[in-house]
Amino acid sequence: MKMDPAPYPIGTPGTPWGEAERGEWRALQRRQRSYEADVLSVIERLRSHFDVQQYGELNVGDERFPLMAICSRDWQADLPVVLITGGVHGYETSGVHGALQFVDLHAADYAGRVNLLVAPCVSPWAYERIHRWNAHAVDPNRSFRQGSPAEESAALLQLVASVRERVLLHIDLHETTDTDEREFRPALAARDAKPYEPCGIPDGFYLVDDSEHPQPAFQQAVIEAVEKVTHIAPADDNGEIIGSPVVAKGVIQYPLTELGLCAGMTKARYKTTTEVYPDSARATPEQCNAAQVAAVCAAIDYVLVHR
């Protein structure tokens, strides 16, 4: 017999959260790692070869988080822009460290070919708490729209505004983790007073293409490169990954802009969201970072040929 899951420990079933419940949730979140030690120190080291800029500051209580971007030093007005984002969901570790690793190891290879704009950790408060939401229990990756309720998303939108029309490629680095099913989806159901419907966690890497402007050959080029580093998620028995039909090996589609997703924030011809599975018995943290790096390199290599 199917058992209903236990109620989420915050809020009243059937009633959306108000400020009291959001405050109760926030009080339970504990700092587990350091944005300064893990991210800012690496960015500072990269400053000798790249331009670094602060594009905003996130203030949560007495905590201050500078929002940082890394840019090509040889920025040229006639070159296309490649936008790389990580840590939109702060708990998705390889998105942050994969972006930084790409800059450290490979960004110089593209000097004079594209302008790189990299925001490696969009949600630093959530990075430190290893959480999906920001401090107000808002998902930044559903908030990339005018009048955004997420400060993190609004700041990134402002950063990108001046180059938005010139972005050729935007690759947004994410993970799908076991905690999505254990914690984040139940919390979302409780917050919004909706039924919790288990979805399952795919074992492996996959991509999310833009259903409004799909680029299947581009997506497959990225999949082929990543498959040399880690395994690709298979479709489930329904031919789906996380409830969406698999349209090609390791690829599903969302209406990126309509949903307010980070990857839909520009009019880039080429867009994709990576999804690494760090909880797999077949993958190490190093492989997860390497998969993100492989995806970024393959994406840039493809668009340089097919622009």
UniProtKB/TrEMBL annotation:
The keyword Zinc applies. It holds the Pfam family AstE_AspA_cat. Residues 31-307 form the Peptidase M14 domain. The keyword Transport does not apply. It comes from the Bacteria. Its cofactor is Zn(2+). This is M14 family metallocarboxypeptidase.
